[in-house]
Amino acid sequence: MFTGIIQATGEILSLENRGDALSMRLRSPGFFAHCHEGDSVANDGVCLSVEKCTADEATFCIMHQTVENTSFKQASVGKWVNLELPVRADSLMGGHFVMGHVDTVIRVLNVFPRETGVEVDLELPADLNRYVIRRGSISLNGISLTVAEKNKDSLRVCIIPETLSRTNLKNWVPGTLVNVEVDMLGKYIENYLKDRNLAE
Predict the structure, then answer these.
(1) 68 within a domain of the structure (yes/no)
(2) Burial classification of residue 150, based on how many CB atoms lie within 10 Å of its CB (0-12 exposed, 13-18 middle, 19 or more buried)
(3) How many whole angstroms separate alpha carbon 157 and alpha carbon 147?
(4) How confident is the model at residue 143 (pLDDT cuts 50, 70, 90)?
(5) Residue 94 within a domain
(6) Among the residues of 58-170, which ranges form H helices?
(7) Do 108 and 192 have their domain in common?
(8) Are 119 and 179 contained in the same domain?
(9) What are phi and psi of 165, to 5 degrees?
């Protein structure tokens, strides 16, 4: 489990097709120093297992289904990926509960530079609309963000300079594909209520 507080970014060094999977090698100086084979790392909000690593580089195997359902279908060498290690039981919960299980990909509609930071408008698919609330939390490329505004088919987030400097959000332009994971608590509540109604 993660919190959506990005700890580093990594540059994609290589991509290799392995039939039904994609092998991705990343470089992020010092970030993988305490990682081991099999450890989980959030890559742009997608929970992936470390296949092998050094202190500065790590290789991940991404299954075909994950590639097709995330922004990794447009991955390319030289692109930057947001990275976060799993949250520890004794660490601060700086963002919100992020599972690393992406719901879908959405497109950036507009980016508006402001005097401080930027505002970004993104698509909001109809099937996710009910899980998104104004002033609620949402994970975009693994970044825990607050929904500033919500319309029928779009949402807006406001980005402070600190977040811009630490993430790949600085590279977003209209048309950029972004991994989205809505707040899981709403989905659990909905599922519980459905099951209870069926039982009654």
Answers:
(1) yes
(2) middle
(3) 5
(4) very high
(5) no
(6) 64-68, 161-166
(7) yes
(8) yes
(9) -75, -25
Give me the amino acid identity at 189.
I
| C-alpha to C-alpha distance for 34 and 6, rounded to whole angstroms | 17
- Mean pLDDT check: name the lowest of 11-25, 83-97, 117-131: 83-97
Q: Which tokens go with 65?
A: 């289904």
User: pTM higher than 0.85, yes or no?
Assistant: yes
Residue 94: the pLDDT is 80
Amino acid at 97: F
Sole residue written with tokens 């009654």: 200
Instruction: Give me the pLDDT at residue 101, please.
Output: 95
Any alpha helices (H) in the chain, and if so which ranges? 64-68, 161-166, 184-199
Domain holding 29: CATH number?
Answer: 2.40.30.20
Pairwise CA distance, residues 157 & 140, whole Å: 10
Residue whose tokens read 């991404």: 62
CA 107 to each of CA 140, 178, 179: distance values in angstroms, whole numbers, following the listed order: 11, 6, 9
Identify residue 5 by its one-letter amino acid code.
I
pLDDT confidence bin for 199, thresholds 50/70/90: low
Amino acid at 113: P
